[in-house]
Design goal:
The chain has about 180 residues and is mainly α. The protein has 7 helices and no strands. The protein has helices at about 1-10, 15-40, 40-75, 80-115, 120-150, 155-165, 165-180. Residues about 1-10 have low confidence and may be disordered. The protein binds protoporphyrin IX containing FE.
């Protein structure tokens, strides 16, 4: 029962708190990236790449796990205690890990794309297109977290099992593009 109460009354759910958290991660990353670029331009590339890869790992970990939670969540009765537990898990995963990690991935990735490649290269254009697609999948999952949160999910576990594979497929293509750079 404790979990049920938390799902409905956690102050972290307010849109204002959510906005503050998103703006804070944006500002901290931007300030860090700009400061590093000014203080140590050569070392900055390696350090921003470290930041980029760490953020990518966090983003992908969340995008791979969230639809797996949807698979289980879609099989339990709306309003049950288990369903309320899934709501908390999904919302916290999205707000604490997936959203900030996506922001940091984009900022550090675009910084690298400009500083190192001046946005030139077929592989880079292909990669950015795929990451835009991945960001769309992220948006779709964020909508699903809201719908599950309001007990409005209408899709079955089969659908979520298929969606579970989409971020994996995009990730494989992105990593091939950035490391092999085939064109
Ligand atoms: C958000 C848009 C993104 C942009 C603009 C971007 C851009 C870049 C750039 C320019 C590099 C440096 C590549 C090099 O110097 O060889 C890089 C490194 C890397 N990126 Fe991204 N990236 C983005 C998102 C992602 C995503 C979503 C993934 C994985 C799913 C990813 C995986 C990697 C990896 C593994 C490296 C290290 C490659 C290496 O050092 O050999 N990136 N990224």
């Amino acid at each position: 029962m404790t979990i049920v109460a938390k799902a409905g009354s956690d102050p972290a759910m307010t849109p204002r708190r959510r906005m503050i958290r998103a703006v804070m991660s944006l500002v901290i990353t931007l300030v860090g990236v700009i400061a590093l670029g000014l203080l140590a331009p050569v070392a900055a590339i390696a350090w921003i790449k470290v930041l980029h890869v760490l953020a990518v790992i966090s983003w992908m970990a969340g995008l791979l796990y969230l639809p797996r939670l949807f698979v289980y969540h879609s099989q339990v009765a709306p309003g049950s205690e288990t369903s309320e537990t899934f709501k908390v898990m999904e919302r916290k995963l999205l707000e604490y890990i997936i959203n900030p990690a996506m922001i940091v991935t984009w900022i550090a990735g675009l910084w690298l794309a400009w500083q190192v490649y001046r946005f030139q290269g077929g592989w880079l254009h292909g990669k950015i297109a795929l990451v835009l697609l991945l960001s769309g999948v992220h948006g779709f999952f964020a909508g699903a977290v809201r719908r599950f949160g309001d007990d409005r999910n209408t899709r079955g576990h089969g659908f979520w099992r298929i969606m579970n594979e989409v971020p994996t497929a995009i990730m494989v293509l992105v990593v091939i593009l950035v490391i092999v750079k085939p064109f």
